[in-house]
Amino acid sequence: MKKILTSTALLAFYVNAFPQLSFSGNDLPVISESAAASTGLEAVYVVSDVAGVSASYRSTAGNAVKWYRFSNLGGGYAEEISGIIQSGDLSTLPSLQGDMGYIIEDGGSRHCYWVVNYASHKLSLGSIAISPESDCSTVILAFEGDADAIRYYTVNGQSQELSRGLKLSYSTLKYDEDAAIYLFSDITDELSHASANIPVNAPLCNTDFTLSGDRFLETWAQPQSIVSPYYEAKAVEAYTTAQQVERDNDNEQKGEVSGLGGSAPVEIDFHAVTTDAAIFKEWQIATDQEFDLIDYRHNDLDLNYVFDNEGTFYVRFMASNAAGNCDYYSPVYEVSIGESDIKCPNAFSPGTSEGINDLWKVSYKSIIQFECHIFNRWGIQVAHLTDPSQGWDGKYKGKLVPSGVYYYVIKARGADGKDYNLRGDINIIGYKQNTSGTGNVTQ
Q1: Confidence check: pLDDT of 3 > 80
Q2: Is residue 281 left, alpha or beta, with left meaning phi > 0 and alpha meaning psi from -120 to 50?
Q3: For the sheet containing 224-227, what is the strand order?
Q4: pLDDT per residue over 390-423, tens digit each?
Q5: Are 401 and 441 in contact (CB under 8 A)?
Q6: Residue 118: closest CA among 167, 162, 67
Q7: Which pLDDT score is estimated for 77?
Q8: CA 443 to CA 214: how far, in whole Å?
Q9: First-residue to last-residue Cα distance in the chain
Q10: Omega before residue 214 within 30° of 0, cis
Q11: What pTM did the predictor assign?
């Protein structure tokens, strides 16, 4: 065996001008594939059947050229081919061998090619069936036929795969955010080859699988196609959202809250959309991240829940198929409810500047029960508040009360279970006294 070139030398002679081989004696067109520069090859040719086929090369400089052939060992072990027919600047290899590499020495340049004999790798699609080894995440298609990997080798002897471009087509469901539903989607996966077991992401709807190709037979107008038995979906998926109902109470202490939660009571709308196979559907609320103990369950797609206890809560949605052997669990939503607090101001100035200190309000956080009574110094109740967001505008029976000292009594409970029994003074300041000057409030 004559060692004509080392791998390094072959790559050094790699040029950008790519003279092409031509073929004769073939019934079907030869398919030419470009090759990556790293392979040292200028092209990979796919011949339907090399029997009776010759290959020709036209010299760019009118030289008499030399032909060499190499196997999977690489160009470093190429052997010179005898019997080349030379006619002017055209040299012809009369008997082409497939699944081999060729080096053509043309004066000071060398050109490297690989020829695939498709007849040695001819596609045969027998059948595909759903394997019993399929599970909730993956469908295994049991393939019978011949669709092996087509290999070629670089000038360095490295194995490369020439993709068959087989097409595996089926349907599934995909969530559409604009429509807020799952819609049918046709999927086509490209396979470089097919083995006895073809894994596919489990479709989310009933479908069949069609395997067709390959791209070489399609080019030669001889495509093949097989269809699987009907597959009934068992995989389950869901798309979930959580939307907190916002409150715009200017006297509520918001604090630094990233995510869901804050000052109780916190109302959140949870919503889920599921795929076809989901039969059992449930929202779950727990106080531990592992959901070892579930505190609340709700068997529906929609859940409106009010969190009125201090602490951290975890919410997730789960769904399963009719057989109960395929489950889906959503991402976990974390809801943090802060501890309670009430602060009471001791003065305000109604009737002076509108919008500036003209309401008496407590500053609060996570208060779930609240009752406040406000009295004048003679014990007459001038205001009654039942929600911490409410305020007193300094009026009694529609009229501003006189400036002076008033008294509040508050009974409240926080989300953390803390009870509040508060008493204190309220000083009304900053506006003109009533004309009677008595400061009395009539009933």
Answers
A1: no
A2: beta
A3: 181-191, 166-176, 210-213, 224-227
A4: 999 999 999 999 999 999 999 999 999 999 999 9
A5: yes
A6: 162
A7: 94
A8: 95
A9: 122
A10: yes
A11: 0.79
